[in-house]
Amino acid sequence: MKDNSVQSVDWKSIFSPHSLVYTICGISLSAIALKAFMLPNKFLDGGVTGIAILVNLGFGIDINILLIAINLPFLFMAWRMIGKTFAVQSGISISLLVIALHFLEVPTVTEDKVLIAVFGGFLMGSGIGLIIRGGGLIDGFEVITEYFHKNSALTASEITVFLNSLIMLSAAYVFGIEPAMYSILTYFTAIKTTDYIVEGFEEYTALTIISKEHELVKELIVKDFGKAISVYKGERGYLPDTFHIKHPCDIIMTVVTRLEVHRIKLAIQEIDPKAFFYVQTIKEVKGGVVKQVGKKHV
């Protein structure tokens, strides 16, 4: 594991306009979600926020104190494992959330449980997503999830589901099954919204095509859709009834948004109705030509 202890805090990055705008907007949305939707109606989110709400409603301990106390060990882990800048920025985000919850007065918007779950989760997820885009977090569970993911055979998703399942089971025991079920809906809405905010609505997808008309397919993707391609040399054929028959071909791979996949597949099928596709979701794209904005490649 990389030693981050020698890294200094990048204050310029923490207080950059880009980071501050994302963080402040994210804190505002998260505070509204908690004050106007979730806390008055005993709805939980996942992670540290969920634990804090559970303890607050069960024992009456101030949620602001809980958010700081529960997150402190995770911030220490982030300082050691991820980096000082990230830990400081996360600490600032958590402190701003506590201040907002203390001073912000927001009336309860609705008592409809479905609306609370959906819009409370949407606002909470949007807030968390914006804070992450600003470089920090308000939920230390992300740190411990990353730690166990690197030191166990479990995936990050499996660890997250397991830890949050314990929170929801505790909510069911303390408040009953129905509030716990609505809390699950809130949490699901929040994590899906966070994914959209962090990854963008244009989530990138790797599209691989094997076609006998590979030259026409390459020309279509590059010239008509303006996409860069990678080409692998391969062979097609090897069917069960004609295993001995094979043909050399170019295997074409391109990175597109999920909004473009269907249009490109239809266009390719007009060239070769028997073209073979497979699609893979990818989490991050960096470098090369991914899309065009005007005459500028991004």
From TrEMBL:
It is found in: Cell membrane. GO terms for cellular component: plasma membrane. Residues 247-287 form the DUF2179 domain. The keyword Hydrolase does not apply. It holds the Pfam family DUF2179. It comes from the Bacteria. It is a multi-pass membrane protein. Keywords: Cell membrane, Membrane, Transmembrane, Transmembrane helix. The chain crosses the membrane at residues 20-39, 51-74, 86-103, 115-132. InterPro entries: DUF2179, N-reg_PII/ATP_PRibTrfase_C, UPF0750_membrane, YitT. This is Uncharacterized membrane-anchored protein YitT, contains DUF161 and DUF2179 domains. It comes from Algoriphagus zhangzhouensis. The lineage of its organism: Bacteria, Pseudomonadati, Bacteroidota, Cytophagia, Cytophagales.
